[in-house]
Amino acid sequence: MKHKTPTLTAIACALSLAASASLGAEVAGGSSTKYVVAGPSSLQGADLAGISMPTTIPPTTNPDDQSGIVSFKNGPIAQTNTAYALSADDNGYYYVRLPNGTIMAETWKTVGPNNTEIYAYRQLGNPEDGFPQFGGEVVAKV
């Protein structure tokens, strides 16, 4: 019977190297559409990983119609955590409310493999002025 330890060790080393390279990752990213811009945030915290989207419906590619770049950490992730602290409705989802109490979105949160936090949002109302019209969004925090 052959031992598979050298192969497993090689796989573990490769995964370790791949993981260590991501620890110092810069704020960067991409998107699947021409409307989304990733970069350092300018709203809800400066220089954090963020995203900008159109503020108009229907969306346009005009730079004047883009929101500021909203911090994931202090924007959607913090809003979901606040909604969870306030309790779910009867259907198990949580509402994100504007400061005036208006419901802006429904949100869900789950934890996946390797403690990856996954946040999902569905827009129900208009966000505050200057914030993006996001429709639906899924964010993973690793």
Report on this model:
Residues 1-29 have low confidence and may be disordered. The protein has one domain. Strand 4 (94-97) and strand 5 form a beta hairpin. It is an alpha+beta fold. It has helices spanning 5-22, 73-86; strands at 37-40, 49-52, 70-71, 94-97, 103-111, 117-123, 136-141. The protein contains two helices and seven strands, in the order αβββαββββ. The longest helix has 18 residues, at 5-22. Strands 4-5-6-7 form a four-stranded antiparallel sheet, with helices on one face. A three-stranded antiparallel sheet has the order 1-2-3. The protein is globular and about 35 Å long.
Keywords:
7 strands; three-stranded antiparallel β-sheet; 2 helices; disordered N terminus; alpha+beta; four-stranded antiparallel β-sheet
The SSE order reads HEEEHEEEE
Percent of residues in helical segments?
10-25%
Q: Give the overall pLDDT as a whole number.
A: 74
Radius of gyration: 19 Å
Report the count of strand segments: 7
Signal peptide: 1-25
Keywords: Signal
Region (Disordered): 49-70
